[in-house]
Write a structure and sequence with these properties.
Elements: H1 4-19, E1 26-30, H2 34-38, E2 46-49, E3 67-73, E4 76-82, H3 93-105, E5 110-119, E6 129-137, H4 166-175, E7 180-186, H5 195-204, E8 208-210, H6 214-222, E9 226-236, H7 247-271
Parallel strand pairs: 1-4, 1-5, 5-9, 6-7, 7-8
Antiparallel strand pairs: 2-3, 3-4, 5-8, 6-9
Helix pairs in contact: 1-3, 3-6
Bound molecules: 8-iodo-guanine (8IG).
8-iodo-guanine (8IG) binds near residues 117, 192, 193, 245 and 250.
Length: about 270
């Protein structure tokens, strides 16, 4: 079997060929709810189904179709990764980060990871967008696990001190000063947390809880990309509000927010 880095390189070459883009400047991984907003970025020049690219596994979540959508936004070559895959679908950490490794191998040096998540701070309710300042990886796994990266790649002992780029967060602060920052705790899911687990996450310093993003951020950083994380709070976390949690509210929060999310992405693509 080829190693994950060669596999990503292969998929990147296939993507270049199928999309007609030689390289990308920026890639945006679209979480629940963000895909509708991303339509505001403009008309795609191509949509490549991930089923036609090496190493990609199919998403099993309804509403997540696997595609890499290419667009030129004011001369910035953008890849939208639609149809993220998760650990909770039975994938390995390497499978989860393969789309990110692929777009970095295709040249993207800026990776925007978007997600829908639960909020721990009652002052940040459903519909709030938060910039991820840092994360706590509670998945008990890492995309760096396994054989050492081959010659030419950084060592597996990746420094995560500036994982969510302070520079990019500064650019966002300037462009969208109303957005607050948060600390994202990444759980495996797919069950939501118990109230006691949310108390734990809060005591650890987390303000957001979700089931994605953390492994992708680590893999992107390892490859030398700059990472920006954006969370759409879709629900208050378990025990923070008395309302029961359900997946339909996640979808609804995304639909309601598509206007502002689209405006934010359009603005950020121009300045990142
Ligand atoms: I949307 O409350 C969404 N994703 N772990 N907890 C976790 N993931 C989530 C939640 C939540 N809401």
């Amino acid at each position: 079997m080829t190693n994950p880095y060669e596999l990503a390189q292969l998929a990147a070459n296939e993507l270049r060929e199928k999309s007609g883009f030689d390289a990308y400047d920026i890639a945006i991984v679209l979480g629940s709810g963000w895909k509708e907003g991303a339509a505001a970025l403009g008309t795609p020049t191509s949509e490549v189904p991930t089923s036609t690219l090496s190493g990609f596994v199919a998403p099993t979540v309804a509403g997540h179709s696997g595609q890499i959508v290419s667009l030129d936004v004011n001369g910035r070559r953008v890849a939208l990764v639609a149809g993220r895959v998760h650990l909770y679908e039975g994938n390995t950490a390497h499978q989860v980060v393969h789309p990110v490794r692929t777009v970095v191998a295709a040249g993207a040096k800026t990776i925007v990871l978007t997600n829908a998540c639960g909020g721990i701070d009652p002052a940040q309710g459903a519909g709030t967008v938060v910039v991820i300042r840092d994360h706590i990886n509670l998945t008990s796994t890492s995309p760096m696990e396994g054989a050492a990266p081959p010659e030419g790649y950084g060592a597996r002992f990746v420094d995560l001190t500036d994982l969510y780029s302070a520079r990019l967060r500064g650019v966002v602060k300037h462009a969208a000063p109303a957005l607050g920052e948060g600390v994202y705790a990444g759980f495996r899911g797919p069950h939501y947390e118990t109230p006691a687990e949310i108390t734990m996450a809060k005591s650890m310093g987390a303000t957001l809880v979700g089931m994605s993003t953390v492994l992708e951020a680590i893999a992107a950083r390892h490859l030398g990309a700059e990472v920006l994380g954006l969370s759409l709070i879709s629900n208050l976390a378990a025990g923070v509000s008395s309302a029961p949690l359900n997946h339909s509210e996640v979808l609804e929060a995304g639909q309601n927010a598509s206007g502002p999310l689209g405006a934010l992405l359009s603005q950020l693509v121009r300045v990142l």
